[in-house]
Each structure stands twice: as C-alpha cells, then as structure tokens.
Design goal:
By secondary structure, the chain is mainly alpha-helical. It has helices at 2-12, 41-66, 190-199, 211-214.
C-alpha cells in the first residue's frame, strides 16, 4: 500500500516541463548593422543609391537657389547702346561718354567726376543723386534728364540743352559754366535760380534761346 501511494504521488504531483525553442544567436551580425566598408556587396548596393540620391537632391537644391542669387549690380542696366554695361551706382570717374547716344541711360547715384559727356545724347537720362563734379556736359542734349539731388558743381554745361530737365531737391550748380545753356521749363529752387542768373550769359546754338531768358532772370 505504501508503495502504491509513492507511485501515485510521483505520477500526478510532478509538474510537466515544457521547453520552448530559443532563437538561434548568429555569430554574424546583420549586414546593415556593419560599417559600410564591412558590408557585403549586396548591402552596399542598397545603401549607395540612397546616398547618391540624397546628394543629387542637395545639389539640385543648391543650383535652384543659385539661379535666384544674382549680383545686384546686374539688375541695373540703362537704355541706349551703352546699356550692356552697368552705369548705375558705379564709380565712373573720368569715363569718356563723349558723342554717345545714351537715351534714358541710368546713372543714378554714380560717381561721374570729370566724366566726359561732350555732345552726348542724354534725353531722359537719370543723374539722380549722382556726383557730376567737374563733368563736361557741353553741347549735350539733356532734354528731360533728371538731375534731382545731383552735384553738378563746377560742371561744364555750355551750350547744353536742358529743356524740361528736373533739378529738384538739393541739386547744386555752384561754379558750373552755363554759357549758352538752355534751362527752359527746368524747375529750380529760388536760391539756385538767383545764383545762375548772376553768371548766365550767351545763347543756345540749337534752340536759339538766350540763357538768361530761359532762367527767367529779371
């Protein structure tokens, strides 16, 4: 009887044991976990196209941006045959423009000291805030030109035609030679008109108008 009890206890009280299969641990890590130089050839082929595509995308982005980044100076080109060169905001000291056709040319804010415009056609040209100190504008066609805020001191305007030109603001003609110049319909400050009337003389050879009359001198 005792043996039977021992047998029954050993048969039903022992808990069954289950063994689950454990994942095999490989001695070789995944190819993608290795550095690029140590990866198999197949893994390299998967990685390199991705890197190349990213580099190509970055290059394309840089090129697209560069198309919009233009030298600011290239955006300012005037009219006339000289328009291929930039004349706005430039240092053109002593430059020779004599006899040239420079209709509506843009010389805004440029330094034009001692520049030569003798006999040039400058209809509608802009000299806004430009420095024309000592420039030669004799015999030039300056009809409708803009001299607003320009420094025209000691410039040679003899026999120049300035009909309808603008000279508003602090435009200065101090020391300028205006013999034979035509100032018809040029808006001048009272102090500038008074100064020019003191030195005005001659008659414009193109229009036949006396300089003093065009300045409305008393």
């Amino acid at each position: 009887m005792a043996l039977l009890n021992v047998f029954m206890c050993s048969k039903f009280s022992a808990k069954p044991r289950f063994s689950y299969p454990r994942p095999a641990v490989s001695a070789h890590p995944s190819p993608l976990a290795l550095p690029l130089k140590q990866r198999p050839e197949a893994s390299r082929k998967l990685t390199l196209p991705l890197t190349a595509s990213v580099s190509a995308a970055s290059l394309a982005a840089l090129l697209s941006v560069s198309l919009f980044v233009v030298d600011p100076a290239l955006a300012f080109k005037g009219g006339g045959p000289y328009g291929q060169e930039v004349t706005r905001g430039q240092d053109l000291t002593g430059k020779d423009f004599s006899g040239k056709t420079l209709i509506k040319q843009d010389f805004k804010t440029s330094i034009l000291r001692q520049a030569n415009f003798k006999g040039a056609k400058l209809l509608g040209a802009s000299f806004f805030d430009a420095d024309l100190t000592g420039a030669d504008l004799s015999d030039a066609d300056l009809r409708g030109a803009d001299f607003s805020l320009a420094n025209v001191t000691k410039a040679n305007l003899s026999n120049a035609n300035l009909e309808g030109a603008l000279a508003t603001g602090n435009t200065s003609f101090k020391g300028a030679n205006i013999t034979g110049a035509d100032f018809t319909d040029v808006p001048l400050r009272d102090d500038q008109r008074e100064y020019l009337c003191k030195v005005a003389d001659g008659m414009n050879p193109t229009t036949g108008n006396a300089t003093r009359e065009t300045l409305l001198c008393n």
